[in-house]
Amino acid sequence: MTNYPMTWDLDVIYEGGSNSAAFLAELAGMERDIESLTGELAALAAGAAPSAEQLTNWTASVQSILLRIRQSDSFVSCLQAQQMKDAAANGLNDRVKTMSAKFNAALTSFDEKLLRTDDASWQAWLQSAEAAPVAFVLNERREASKEKLPPEQEALAGELAVDGYHGWGDFYNTIVSRIRFDATEEDGTVKQLSAGQMFNRLSNSNRSVREAAFAEWERVWGEQADLCADTLNRISGFRLKLYDKRGWKSILKEPLEINRMSEATLNAMWSAVTEGKPKLVRYLERKAKLLGLKKLDWHDVAAPLGQTEKKVSYDEAAAFIKEQFGAFSPDLADFTEMAFKDAWIEAEDRPGKRPGGFCTAFPKSEQTRIFMTYSGTPDNVSTLAHELGHAYHQHVMNDLPPLAQEYAMNVAETASTFAEMIVADSALEAATERDEKLALLDEKLQNAVAFFMNIHARFLFETRFYEKRSAGMVSQEELNGLMEEAQREAFSGALGELHPHFWAAKLHFYLTDVPFYNFPYTFGYLFSGGIYAIAKKEGASFAERYVSLLRDTGLMTVEELGEKHLGVRLDQPDFWREAVALLLEDVDAFLALTEE
């Protein structure tokens, strides 16, 4: 079996890590180009309409800078994630954020210039060879600029956000980097773990280990709750104030526009999910019974069934994932082999790393990097498959113009969740032993619980938190109450002990680039479920259609994507109901397998 590296290679991107001379040169070049673009845009006389040549040149500059901004942001994110106490990386992060603010100011000015072009000239220019491949995005930017503040005010807000809005997001990372969790080993020794290491213990097969880990998890996050509450209140306060100045009434306006989906689609999705929950509750009740419990506590939901938990080595996981991917698409399997072999994945279990997992793109280098902490659990294998799905999505878009590569989070989660489904379903079909089938069914249904219930709880919490925050600061006690209320509702009362400090522990609430980092996960899960059903019917021929769908994700609304590639209406409940029913078929199999 191949012995794959478990630490990533960043030197092939910019040699030298946080002291990279090549990266500093990249930043300096971008700063010059942003300044040049800003000057060119400002040179257009007040009220004057730009020429087609100017629009073409500005668009080329925007795309060139965008490619490098994305790459630079990814590089800094990787440096910070691999070692949270890398002070030099934190300094680079501040520089990239400052540069991004200046670029966003230039983009605001660029958008305003697009608006100055009369409709006839605009439509004619969009037919040009330079504009046509990104016409959808350019139209989108032109329309969005009509609903924002004057360019100079938007630019000011962006500049102030670096040390305000984004600064609070960065402060959350500081909180996480400092906290430590006490874990008692079997021999009685106590060692300190990072958040990423401790999180893996929350799904341990031994309930006493889980209980102790969860109690410690709640205790430590409770100690940080005052800092986390301040941070969350400041981030949301900035967001609400900016929305108010723009005249935006709905807190969902920005996240829906970012995800290129309508509120009707969001409501249709949640309605179908809610209708399907009673069946999922039956699974949770049966699992509680199998574990000898009246009700599952929060830390029991992701617990494996049985007292023995098979550890899967990293190389075994790689071989398994490649094999399952290969059954769907040889191209996907070849890409996966390259990612493992060329050290695109940071998987080592060591102190100092950021918790969680992610995939980030280096579009200039046409590469991606995957971050996680691999400890051999089945959940780790799923995470690995998930992130490789993200990486493949970017891979098939590398030859598109930079603006056409800007796909939204909800369709990004489609590719990753689809990849997870391939692995999970293939493993289940190959299983011959009852206990193995049961464990695999349980793992698949844990995903359904995560996307139908856990994510819904986050959505309900965040929606209600913003309602309260619009009237003033929200205390940590109120935040705990909102979270418990959301969890009770989203899980249909199926849980015993809840996780009141989940709002503090979850990074997603503190991301300043994307508000409501929750519902896109459920969208991706259900959308990929519908795609997967089609893939199973069509067989090998669907792989090519799948790539075509992925390549369109940066150039359409989700409703357009559904109609073109699947022939479905996403703003109507039928597609979502069918997807929910399909994904809950596993409940019947689980119940049948566990009947006494």
From TrEMBL:
Cross-referenced Gene3D superfamilies: Oligoendopeptidase f, C-terminal domain, Oligopeptidase f, N-terminal domain
One of the protein's GO biological processes: proteolysis
Note accompanying the cofactor annotation: Binds 1 zinc ion.
GO molecular function: metal ion binding; metallocarboxypeptidase activity; metalloendopeptidase activity
InterPro entries: M3B_PepF_2, OligopepF_N_dom, OligoPept_F_C, Pept_M3A_M3B_dom, Pept_M3B_clade3, Peptidase_M32_Taq
PANTHER family noted in UniProt: CARBOXYPEPTIDASE 1, METAL-DEPENDENT CARBOXYPEPTIDASE
NCBIfam families the UniProt entry points to: M3_fam_3
Protein name: M3 family oligoendopeptidase
Organism: Paenibacillus sacheonensis
